[in-house]
Amino acid sequence: MRAQIEILASLQEIDREIREKHGARDLVLAEIHRREQEIEAKKVEISLLSGDLAEWDKSRREKEKVLQEDGQKAMEKRMRMNRIKNIKELQALQREIDQIKQNNTQLEDELIKVLEELEARTSSLKEKVEELKKLEDAWGEKRRELEVQLEGNLIERYELIFARRGGMAVVAVSEGICQGCYMNIPPQLRNEIMKSERLNLCPSCHRILYYKPALPQDKQL
Ligand SMILES: [Zn+2]
């Protein structure tokens, strides 16, 4: 019984560690989610602002076009006045020209407002793009940190592989063969496994691999 209780105690320790790692992983995943949503929201903001900016720019072009056309019309009318002697016709033409001038004054005021709006939106867009860049830069750094954290979560990976691979997550490589799926392990990977500096997975069955020396007469891994 004593031996069994001891096994239970170590099992409990492992379970507790797994639970802790799960908590840590959930926090990391939540952080990833939060950051990505923040960046996504900023992108939506930028896209809306760009659309808005395009509308205002369209309005600017339209007003400028009308102003130019009206200027042309007014000039043509003034040239016609030079050739007309009839006073009534002259007065009528002058009224048309005045009307155009009046319209233009109004249009110019509107155009100034449009240009102000355009300027405000352009600088606001520039600000947002800078904010996005900052977010993305900061996130890139943080993401690498988190990925390292997740990668370091060995028990979790072990647990996942254990569940997916029929209760066998860690297997030896013997004579260049994965003892989990009996596929050949490429030489480069064999070297990595021998060095054992990081976690190496079988390319075929994705189990965790470790080095097991072959028989003395066989130098190959
Ligand atoms: Zn394998």
Tell me about the biggest sheet? 3 strands, mixed
Poorly predicted spans: none
SSE series: HHHEEHE
Give the amount of beta strand, in percent.
Answer: under 5%
Count of domains:
2
Estimate the mean pLDDT confidence: 87
Principal-axes shape call: rod-shaped
The hetero molecules present are:
zinc ion
Give the % helix: over 70%
- Let me know the number of strands: 3
Give me the secondary-structure category.
mainly alpha
What does it look like?
This protein is mainly alpha-helical. It has two domains: 2-152, Helix Hairpins (Orthogonal Bundle), CATH 1.10.287.1490; 155-211, no CATH class. It is built from four helices and three strands; from the N terminus they run αααββαβ. It has a three-stranded mixed beta sheet with strand order 2-1-3. A hairpin with a 2-residue loop joins strand 1 (170-174) and strand 2 (177-178). Helix 1 (2-83) packs antiparallel against helix 2. The mean pLDDT is 87. The structure holds zinc ion. Residues 178, 180-181, 183, 202, 204-205, 207 line the site of zinc ion. Zinc ion binds at residues 178, 180-181, 183, 202, 204-205, 207.
List the topology elements.
Layout: H1 2-83, H2 87-151, H3 154-164, E1 170-174, E2 177-178, H4 187-195, E3 208-211
Parallel strand pairs: 1-3
Antiparallel strand pairs: 1-2
Helix pairs in contact: 1-2
The protein binds zinc ion (ZN).
Residues 178, 180-181, 183, 202, 204-205, 207 line the site of zinc ion.
